Amino acid sequence: MANRDDIKFLSNPKIGQKRKKYCRFKKYNIKYIDYKDPDFLLQFINEQGKILPRRITGNSLKYQRKISVAVKKARHLALLPYVADLLK
Q: For 24-76, CATH number?
């Protein structure tokens, strides 16, 4: 019987596996989300300017709410656009 090391795969066997999502705020111990930092907030909005959901970003509920409040404040102060075409 052949070992797993002896078998040559045509493609990478790790392609179908998904990485574990994690909350980057808990991992790096970030307590405060600054609404005056639009470069950081751009990570959490897509090309059209919509806020990305938790299932995509992997954030916890507590920090996703803080992100949404920070993005909305930044939009109100015109630091981020409400609607954009090809923002990134």
A: 4.10.640.10
